[in-house]
TrEMBL record:
The keyword Membrane applies. It comes from Spirosoma terrae. Keywords: Membrane, Transmembrane, Transmembrane helix. This is Phage holin family protein. The lineage of its organism: Bacteria, Pseudomonadati, Bacteroidota, Cytophagia, Cytophagales. The chain crosses the membrane at residues 6-22, 29-50, 56-75, 87-107. The keyword tRNA-binding does not apply.
Amino acid sequence: MNLILHLLVDAAVIFGLAYIMPQVDVKNFGTALLIAVLLGLLNFFVGWIIRFPLNLVTFFLLTGIIRIVVTAILLKLIDKLMDSFTIVGFWPALVIALAVAVAGMLIDRSAPNEVMVESTYEALLGLAKLRIG
């Protein structure tokens, strides 16, 4: 479920920024969703190959910045692969990568974790015991 939410939010961020920024052109929301899927797949399969040497050079001190730069590079690669998606220049790709990273961080922070689920379950059990007893 979290993956679907990430893909939809990433597509919405990409589509929204394409509407705001004149340097970015996305044909429709379906294209933005395809871009989000491709970005996720490329980050999973290729991104770590690019990130690891850069993180070694910076002694893993700039991991977040490197992840954003690599995402921008992957967005430019997707731009070259697709005709219905255009980014003019590297700075707009960096802005989109930063926005996608912020949106992903907000989703991850708001998603329920195991402790929240267990505490809610225990609270519901306590309420059930109070009503019964």
